[in-house]
Amino acid sequence: MKRDRHVLYEAAVQGVDYDLDLFQRIYRRHRGRGFTRLREDFCGTASLACAWARRRPENEAWAVDHDARVLEWARVHRLPRLRQAAARIHLIEADVCTIAGPRTDFVCAMNFSWWVFKRRRDLVGYYRSVLRSLRPGGVFACNTFGGTGAEKALVERTRIPPSTSCEGDSVPPFTYVWEQASFNPIDHHLQCFIHFRFRDGTEMRRAFRYDWRMWSLPEIEDALREAGFRGVHFYVESWDHEHRRPEAHFRLRTRFENHHSWLACAVGLK
Domain check: are 218 and 173 in the same one? Predict the structure, then answer.
């Protein structure tokens, strides 16, 4: 199999069905009903948006990214496999801060992609744009991470089992390497890389590079409220105290223990 960094990324990082289940649970909890129209910002290969359209015939999704190359990858590798659902996927090459519509029920920015905003005014500007893009009663979600180890240089290795790509091709096992190369406590700028290592000893170094600002939870809440969201909530990944590891289930929290690492989903209600 030709080694495609997007295929490897999806096998190692993305869990779109888990994310969509969480979004539906959040929306139903706060709105008392389901939703049909979803927008995925910083969509990359639009895996999440496509999975949403595939779930039910009434679902429709907009996938927004400024990189024409990843949108073309989705157009070539993903849309043909969706059959009728492909008509309910809209790939949009645009700046997420300026896209005008159409309005949707739910907007998400996952995989910490929104950390590209390093200044507060830019972050608030993005949140305001999202608010304008939501229907009345709409919901916005963006994920984030932190913890006592999040502000340190580190390298984490995870063995990824065999899987199948979106095209139906087998993906052999490989090692996913997450590197936090540097962190500046003054401005919270964080530089990270993703590498992939293979059984034959070869490696795809710096397959992905990230230059971010790490935003704290109170900073996120303040920015969402300044942008005009009337309610802000945090869903935090639960922790298994006995085995000292995350449980991969997100619960609504108002406080939690600051572990070595944690994942959270910030939710803004229009």
Answer: no
Lateral strand order in the sheet of 37-41: 89-93, 60-65, 37-41, 104-109, 134-146, 262-269, 231-240, 245-253
**β-strand partners of 170:** 164
- Give the rounded distance of the alpha carbon of 244 from its chain centre: 25
- Residue ending a domain, choose from 198, 213, 228: 213
185-218 confidence digits (pLDDT tens): 999 999 999 999 999 999 999 999 999 999 999 9
Distance between CA atoms of residues 235 and 1, nearest Å: 38
Q: Find the helix packing angle between 68-77 and 5-12, rounded to 10°.
A: 80
Count how many domains the chain has.
2
Side-chain-facing half-sphere of 53: CA atoms under 13 Å: 23
Which CATH number covers residue 117? 3.40.50.150
Check: CB of residue 124 under 8 Å from CB of residue 252.
Answer: no
Of 68, 12, 71, 67, residue with least CA distance to 45? 71
Computed on alpha carbons and rounded to an integer, the radius of gyration of the chain in Å comes to 18
Threshold 0.85, pTM exceeds: yes
- Identify the domain containing residue 188 by its residue range: 154-213
Q: Is the same domain home to 135 and 19?
A: yes
Q: Are residues 125 and 89 in the same domain?
A: yes
Tell whether 36 and 92 lie within a shared domain. yes
Which residues, at least 6 apart from 9, have a Cβ–Cβ distance to it below 8 Å? 44, 194, 207, 208
Nearest CA-CA partner of 23 in 127, 140, 104: 140
Question: What are the tens digits of pLDDT across the range 104-149?
Answer: 999 999 999 999 999 999 999 999 999 999 999 999 999 999 999 8
Which residues are within 8 A (CB) of 162 and not within 5 positions of it... i.e. 6 or more apart? Answer: 170, 171, 172, 173
